[in-house]
Amino acid sequence: MAAKKNGPIAALGAVLAAGLLAPLFTGSAPGFYIEVLLGGLMAGVLYSLVALGFVLIFKASGVFNFAQGAMVLFAALALARLAEWLPGWIGIPAGYPALALAFVLAAGIMVAVAWVIERVVLRPLVAQDPVALLMATLGVTFFLDGFGQTIWGSNIYAINLGISKDPTFILPSVFQGGILISKEDLVATVIATALVILLALFFQKTATGRALRAVADDHQAAQSIGIPLNRIWVIVWSVAGFVALVAGMVWGSKLGVQFSIAQLALKALPVVILGGFTSIPGAIIGGLIIGVGEKMSEVFLGPPLVKLWDLAGGGIENWFAYVLALLFLMVRPEGLFGEKHIDRV
Amino acid sequence: MFYRENGQFKSSYREDQQLLGIRQDRWFIFALIAFAFLAVPYLASDYMFRAILIPFLIVSLAAIGLNLLVGYCGQISLGHAAFMSVGAYAAYNLVVHFPQLNFIVVLVLAGFISALIGTVFGLPSLQIKGLYLGVATLAAQFFIDWVFARVKWFTNYSPSGSVSTAQIDMLGWTVNTPVEKYLMVLAIVIVFALMAKNLVRGHIGRSWMAMRDMDVAAEVIGIRPVHAKLSAFAVSAFYAGVAGALWGFVHLGSWEPAAFSINFSLNLLFMIIIGGMGSILGSFIGAAFIVLLPITLNQVLPVMGRWVGMNFSTAFASHLEFMIFGALIIFFLVVEPLGLARLWSIGKEKLRLWPFPH
């Protein structure tokens, strides 16, 4: 079946690649081009982090977790506020010790959230229509958004990882003026890479990870050899909560912890469509493609479009990811690396 | 004892197929409509019309449209507010460019334009379904939002990007007081609800339901998926477009693209989940619920706060609203997936026997 579908995919890929390279031939400075490319990659890393949570949950429980964005917001709020309050409560010095303790506590809170979701939402709805489960996670989204802002507060909070926000110039000898990158983005990339390696080790090397993979492959077979599905779901939602915490930490330190984090996480939906619902590498590569595509289209495609049709400003990045995902759905519904066969009529 | 169909015999097919088969139902509905037309204009205040009744009627219409698609045809849409905005902007442009058009004509044309756009964005439904379709409709939401925010032609080159409407003229009747607006919207909504009710018990509606229940089986018995799905998208977007035009012209008066954001789409979805999927009555109940809940919370919370000696802020009220929405969605999906409309019909069944046990 693969051979028949490679044509449209190759065509779409060729168009994307052409779009990616076109600015180089239209007189943009190479330094600026690489800056935009790197900026897109960094944004892509953040999308990948959120998309990872989606994929983990979808693989293990077949639930399309719309609430992943809300979980990111909730975890980030918990982390930011606990790090702020802990020095006052127990006299722990502010800064890294408080942040570390807050991180551990927030991870614990996310496990509790996972447990409650499994008990209250998933268990009663087991074996329901996937769309019903999607709507249930919409309910979880609203509840978590409201609950999180009620207990943690609804202003903008800072997570201070102690990294300087000053941009640095690299390679001034190669490109005129050098390339502007921020240290924060580099740290974010390192954290994301570490998280992916940690997850890979967890899935490949531990007994729990093996059980998770077994459940992902076949629920019934896994259950019949004695893997407790309910416990697996709690674990996988906890892992997704932990991923959300890391994403929230990175995102929160970059943009500040605020309600818009939950909205930005909607961008992770096209990422999983692109990468495939069941593939962790797909989530990462999809995130990078979306991140780069978005920035590139905004910077290089936006101005000509605005000039051509006399638009009131760009903002292409608001829909670029979705339209790309839509095109992708048309030619390859299972995504780049997905395995699942999609029902069609 | 009072609510049962004993002694009401059907002697023709016409009688057998009428919309409200039981006499008591008929009386109840006629009484309700008469009350809404004759009594409510004298009873309700201007605030009631502007803040509750008119928004309730218009979102009911949009919820009916979404229910036709999600509840009857089983295709999910997370972007229905975008179709509403298509209707609103289409109506605005029609009025700007053809000021002599009757408002009813504008509404219907806006509905058709919205239906066209809805069909285009419904095309992915032929390939994909379920969750994937949800993402495809999200693409519609974000893309259409962007188009109306950025392409100046649609807003008639208004510098701020927001548009405002002139007063509504219908064959010499100028609709400008809240009571007149209410009566106009009420009449339109009743007509469209009746149409929807008839649509879903006819040939098209049955093919939608067959598609929803099992698409492969539906195809085997000769229902064409292309027709069924695209007609559901078109009709649903038509309703959304008319509702959007009304929302813009009658309720808002002037608006910007943010008025039809993704949150509006999700609210519409919540209406039909809480009210009842696959039920026209449920669309009304759900719309009433979602319109009334925030207003009620804003009224009740400060009072409750005074009882327990706490001062609830408006921010807290809005967060609580989020939490209650979320909890209710989960509650209804777990306990009563068919929504409040199902409770209503259970109540009617019980009423048939009441007060006797059997």
Series of H and E elements of chain A: HHHHHEEHHHHHHHH
**N→C terminal distance of chain B:** 11 Å
CATH class of chain A: Mainly Alpha
Could you estimate the helical fraction of the residues of chain B in percent? Answer: over 70%
- Structural class by helix and strand composition of chain B: mainly alpha
Shape, per Cα inertia axes of chain A: globular
Keywords, please?
heterodimer; A: 345 residues; mainly alpha; ABC transporter involved in vitamin B12 uptake, BtuC; B: 358 residues; two-stranded antiparallel sheet; two-stranded antiparallel ribbon
Fold blueprint:
The complex is a heterodimer of chains A (345) and B (358).
Chain A: H1 2-25, H2 30-61, H3 68-90, H4 96-122, H5 130-152, E1 167-170, E2 179-182, H6 183-205, H7 207-217, H8 219-224, H9 229-255, H10 260-264, H11 268-275, H12 280-309, H13 317-331
Antiparallel strand pairs in A: 1-2
Chain B: H1 13-16, H2 23-43, H3 46-72, H4 80-97, H5 103-122, H6 131-150, E1 163-164, E2 168-170, E3 173-175, H7 178-201, H8 203-213, H9 215-220, H10 225-252, E4 254-255, H11 262-275, H12 280-307, H13 314-335, H14 339-353
Antiparallel strand pairs in B: 1-4, 2-3
Explain this structure.
The complex is a heterodimer of chains A (345) and B (358). With 345 residues, chain A is mainly α. Chain A has one domain: ABC transporter involved in vitamin B12 uptake, BtuC (Orthogonal Bundle). Chain A is built from 13 helices and two strands; from the N terminus they run H-H-H-H-H-E-E-H-H-H-H-H-H-H-H. In chain A, helix 2 packs across helix 7 and helix 3 (68-90) crosses helix 4. Chain A starts with a helix and ends in a 14-residue tail after the last helix. Chain B is mainly alpha-helical and 358 residues long. Chain B has helices at 13-16, 23-43, 46-72, 80-97, 103-122, 131-150, 178-201, 203-213, 215-220, 225-252, 262-275, 280-307, 314-335, 339-353; strands at 163-164, 168-170, 173-175, 254-255. The interface between A and B is large, with 50 and 51 residues.
